[in-house]
Amino acid sequence: MSLNNLLELLNRNPDQYVSGAMMSQELNVSRTAIWKQIRKLEAAGYEFDASTKLGYRLVYSPDGWNDDILSGTLSTDRFGRVVHKYEQVKSTQDAAKELAENGAPEGTLVLAEEQTGGRGRMGRGWVSPQGKGIWMSMVMRPNVPIHCAPQLTLLTAVALCRSLKRVTGLPIGIKWPNDLLIHGKKLSGILLESAAEDERLKYIVAGVGISVNLSKQDYPEELLEKATSLRIEAGQPFNRSTIVAQFLKEWETLYDLFLQEGFRAIAALWESLSVTIGQPVRLITPQGELEGTPIGLEESGAIRILRADGTTTAIFSAEMGEPIKRT
Ligand code: BTN
After folding, report:
1. How far does the centroid of ligand 1 lie from the alpha carbon of residue 27, in Å?
2. By the 8 A CB rule, do 58 and 22 touch?
3. Residue with CA closest to ligand 1 atom 9
4. CA–centroid distance, residue 6 to ligand 1 (Å)
5. 84, 181, 191, 192: which to mutate for ligand 1, most atoms within 8 A of CB?
6. Which residue from 91, 114, 126 has its CB within 8 A of the most atoms of ligand 1, so it is best to mutate?
7. 298: part of which helix (H) or strand (E)?
8. What does the alpha-carbon distance between residue 129 and residue 135 come to, in Å, rounded to a whole number?
């Protein structure tokens, strides 16, 4: 019996429980063999409702990357035109960096079904279970000085937010600098890593993690209060290929606008999507903690903070806490 035989049987009975006895009879194998195959399917991202009395009901099947996405439906010029797909990698960032070092062209995309050592900002990890999300890194080669790198992070957040809102209709916003939130919980993160030469960027590897079809069981207990997925919020799964294609289109359009006209227009878009502006917060910067209200983005990509004493400060890098609730 192959996994496909079992899947075919389960799919012939959509939304119904299929008993272990029936499966073992139909497929002519022992119930232990069925149970082992079910465990394998779970490890590959399938989800079941299991009942000791009734058997198993298939409730979620991973969508699998559609080979067409990046040729058929994709309408970009460079972004995603060369794709490297992996079943499992430690981190797509490492795979994309290696490709960049070996001369991969701008727009080269690395997609993985699963990351075993997904990296977040500030040395944190990134939950990347198999078949449930979009774990991707793209090589960029903008001909701009190093100090423009933060602007590209913000640009990526704008493109991602606009495309996810369009595909899902969910009320998604950006928390400075580059977290995407829905109902206060994190949905997606962006990690830009760069290499420079003579004060100019040699390449950037832009890593994007989008929690698309994760269920609550996919998160460690301690993250459930802070993290969520599109599926949890919308109560329905989404097609990952559609999201990637939309995002790449939006990203390339904004990137070209940025290269031609600079950051100003992108900053205005970022501000309009921000859930950060106007909310008093505590910021942990490399120089220490401060409190204030973010009032806008600088052309440099820094955020301008209004302090209680009426002065303002521009912050480039910080950890932003929860909004401070005044009573
Ligand atoms: C963050 O918000 O802390 C950034 C998270 C970035 C996660 C993505 S998933 C694809 C790429 N590969 C990684 O190891 N990290 C990024």
Report:
1. 41
2. no
3. 209
4. 34
5. 191
6. 126
7. none
8. 9
The answer to whether 150 and 316 have CB atoms below 8 angstroms apart is yes
The count of residues in the chain is 327
**Coil, helix or strand for 308?**
coil
Taking CA atoms only, the protein residue closest to ligand 1 atom 2 is 189
Tens-level pLDDT at each residue, the chain (327 residues): 677 788 888 888 877 899 888 898 888 899 899 988 898 888 878 888 888 888 999 888 877 766 655 556 788 999 999 999 999 999 999 999 999 999 999 999 999 999 999 999 888 999 999 999 999 999 999 999 999 999 999 999 999 999 999 999 999 999 998 899 999 999 999 999 999 988 888 999 999 999 999 999 999 999 999 999 999 999 999 999 899 999 999 999 999 999 999 999 999 999 999 998 998 999 998 888 999 999 999 988 899 999 999 999 999 888 888 777 665
